[in-house]
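Researcher: Structure for this, please.
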Amino acid sequence: MKHNKFMDSTCLLMHKDVPCILFSFDNMMLWAQVNEVLSIAHLPPYMIDNFRGYEYNLNKFLDHRVIPKERPNISAIKDYFDSDSSLELSLRSYMLSVSDHYWIKPADSKVTWADVNFYDNSFEDDSIFISSLTTLKKQIGDRTLISFHSHTPNTSNNGTLPQMWLHTDESPVLYKTGNQPFMQEPFNEAVVSDLLDVLGFNHVLYRLGTFGGSVVSACDAFTTASIEFIPAWQLEKSRTNHLNGLDNYLEFLRQNGCAVTDEIRKQLEEMIIIDYLTMNDDRHWGNFGILRNSETLEFIGLAPIFDNGRTFAYNSFSGDYEAQPAPYNLSKAFAENGTHDRELTYVTGVHDIDYAALKAAVPDIFEKRLIEVMARFEAVDTNREVVAVLERKVPGLIRTLLGRIDAMAKELG
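Model: Predicted structure, token format:
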């Protein structure tokens, strides 16, 4: 592998400055072999008491720490950085993330968390991670600007959409664009963020922007140098057959030492509600989870609702998103690929929702965001058909959402 400082080294999985696992790669770097477990308490939660063993789960961790092959521009990114694999590219930046406080380093390295973390240290911003295809081709042709050892969190970000973290003085900011041909995800993020404001649910604030020749959604990191995100998939334990998906997840939280209060259930039900209204087909177990103190390992609370781009039939010509076939009508959170209607039946708490106010806000939210996104598409010279399709869809999106609000009001009482 090219430019690889890890191939011939014994490595450490670190949690901040706590060594967790001593391991080494095989000759082809296709498998990590565990030599010794050094700190059980600081391991990612799913590795503790897992029947598959430390080695399997370490490799699962590494697999989640790279740009996935489904990312549309992954080949261009690897070409740009002269890398032959996503793993090698992520290792260049110690597999550091803006989500949690785990990282990888050679066992003999003197590097510390303070030296490399992305909260206290700046990182390189390279629009290659999010650029439009036209911009990508131009950038790939100019290799004189490339740093083979770019220090960035963007090579460990495993989202499938073109995206990148941008360093600012206040907080890292995540930019995400949409997938061809509809490019609707940034618009959806902004609309859903506005709906969540009206509902009063705890969520990440999204805004629209342009970057790298693309229209993007932008949001600040909800983690800090002392607070990290643990995704739901890392909390999963053995399921109990007679419990539904939501109740099983609450039990997983308890087994991981999290205090499950009425407020915790309420917030999870709020996530079900917004996913029902917008028919989010991407609430997999990496898109929700908990926050914890990475020093004390104490549970702080649930992560705010985030990642709402794959909603409103984002990859369809029709605004009647309720009538769309799978996968748009399926939920990945608690109904185990059942419908959103089924998942809504798991909501048992009382939610103080002003349905009339919500319905009154819907047209204005869509119209305001449509005007804004159209101007941004025009600014980056996006194919006019993208804008035209969204314009045609919006009236249907509004009608469908209003209908789902009525249906939910009837279901929840």
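Researcher: Any notable elements?
Model: The first helix runs from residue 53 to 63. Residues 138 and 274 are 40 Å apart (CA to CA).
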